[in-house]
Specification:
about 270 residues; alpha/beta; Metallo-beta-lactamase, Chain A; 7-stranded mixed β-sheet; 6-stranded mixed β-sheet; 8 helices; about 25% strand; globular; disordered C terminus
Length: about 270
């Protein structure tokens, strides 16, 4: 069984853990152990990992999504604790970030889609002003996407990865905290139209967007935060959650969320 455990987040879940602005998650595939992003600071990252039973020395691969400090702040702490891990960093990284990895022996600069382990790929840089790469997990019959902040837009990322296969699950920061109600509604509808069945948003997603996802995706909404564990037990041919993609009709004169509430009654 493949699992994703959030080890750094500003949203609480496991009361034993510290929370701080940022995101990091440990992915266990059965063949390898990956750390996706490193949160905003090393002591919180390492401390939370140890509480959850993760030894930094056991991390085989570190994947960094983008430049921002809330995703790279724990980088020095994790690489100093583990000099055997391979770091996959986007080609778009600033020289200052690359310099922080200068003394680490195993750094791969990612310029495009790449398989980095059995059942694990990265997208390479996506987006415009703030380039970012996402992690893609092959969970049996479908794909799962993990994003740091989804700066290129979560729907745009999913559309890109959907050309590789059926995207069923998305997790991570969706960066919708500053979006309007209308923008949130359109994004939720777009993801459902694409065929996403399960969502585990956290970090920079924003309270209004979290509420919209929970309302639209019940029972496919997975609460997430520091300490949450997402399991992928999805062998080929396994049944999926019965959430049918339905795009609500938007009317500026009404609450744009009206279409979501009737979602599960639609044929």
């Amino acid at each position: 069984m493949m699992t994703l455990t959030i080890v750094y987040d500003n949203r609480p879940f496991d009361k034993r853990l510290k929370t701080a602005w940022g995101y990091a998650a440990v992915v266990e595939t059965g063949e390898s152990t990956l750390l996706f992003d490193t949160g905003g600071d090393g002591p919180t990252l390492i401390g939370n990992m140890r509480v959850l039973g993760f030894d930094p020395r056991d991390i085989d691969i570190i994947v960094l999504s983008h430049n921002h400090a809330d995703h790279t702040g724990g980088l020095e702490s994790i690489v100093s604790a583990n000099n055997r891990s391979t770091v996959y960093a986007p080609a778009s990284f600033a020289a200052s970030i690359k310099a922080r990895l200068a003394n680490h022996d195993r750094v791969v600069e990612v310029s495009g889609p790449m398989r980095i382990a059995e059942r694990v790929r990265v997208t390479g840089d996506l987006g415009g002003v703030i380039a970012e790469q996402a992690l893609v997990l092959e969970t049996g019959a479908a794909l799962a996407i993990v994003t740091g902040c989804a700066h290129p837009g979560i729907a745009a990322i999913v559309r890109q990865v959907a050309s590789w296969g059926d995207v069923r699950t998305i997790a991570g920061g969706f960066h919708m905290k500053d979006n309007s109600s209308c923008e949130i509604g359109k994004t939720v509808a777009a993801l459902m139209q694409i065929g996403v069945r399960r969502v585990a948003p956290s970090h920079c997603t924003g309270d209004e967007a979290l509420g919209a996802f929970e309302e639209a995706y019940t029972p496919g909404f997975t609460p997430a935060g520091a300490g949450a564990v997402i399991a992928f037990a999805d062998p080929p041919g396994a049944p999926v959650l019965d959430i049918k993609p339905y795009v609500p009709e938007f009317d500026a004169r009404q609450d744009v969320r009206v279409g979501w509430y009737g979602l599960r009654s639609k044929p």
